[in-house]
Amino acid sequence: MHLCRAVARKPDQKEPAPGGNRGHLFPTEWVAWQASGTHVARSDDGGHTFVQTPISNLFGSDVGDVDIRVGGPTPCSVVTSSCSPGTHRVYVSSLEKLPLVLQTHVAYSDDRGASWTINNLAAVNPSFIDRPWLAVFASKASANLDQVYISYHDFSASQINVTASNDGGQTFGPSVDVLAQNGMAETQSFCNTVPSGIEVDPETGEVYVKWITADPVANTTQGCNITQIESFHQVWIAHSPPPMPAP
User: Fold this and answer.
1) Which fold has domain 3-11+26-240?
2) Contacts of 167 (CB under 8 A, 6+ apart)
């Protein structure tokens, strides 16, 4: 079982501490895991107890490869059917079965997991997608200004790609081929990569993408990305400056 964890920068609400120390502020903790689909749970008491917050999708359950991150403050000042003021948006990414097999969708919630908005076409690649990872540069003003990133590799040439959203996961731009930006990375990583994550500097918004690979000889003579029997002895990190000043 693959388990991911995310923590809000500030507590979503005031909860009593274990032992009766009332008024202690706990950061809201989130975990996501894959087991015949994506599952999410939330803790408001420092991880002592968790409440599941199911994601309902008209297209059914997904394949897995889940990741979870916390974004900026929810974009509402009063309670609505899908938004709770004073909390933070939470994002969950995963591989989908439908409407397009082995593509990536992103679900986000503005009411602490009570309801979810799902973008079923967050990341799309004609060669299919594997091992998507999620990162968020959280806006201080509104989650609708969050910069959301998905990194992944495809099932053909095993290229590392990144797609980005500048509106809190509502829409995503086209995927950018990271390996194509550097000839050495392209040569060393050709046909065989394993995505290892994507991170955003919370202060500057700079983006870092990580992956591992073997070498050109091993990759091309030992079955490329199909066999995965190579010795993955190279670690690569690509860096990108922020697309705009941090909000």
Assistant:
1) Neuraminidase (2.120.10)
2) 144, 145, 146
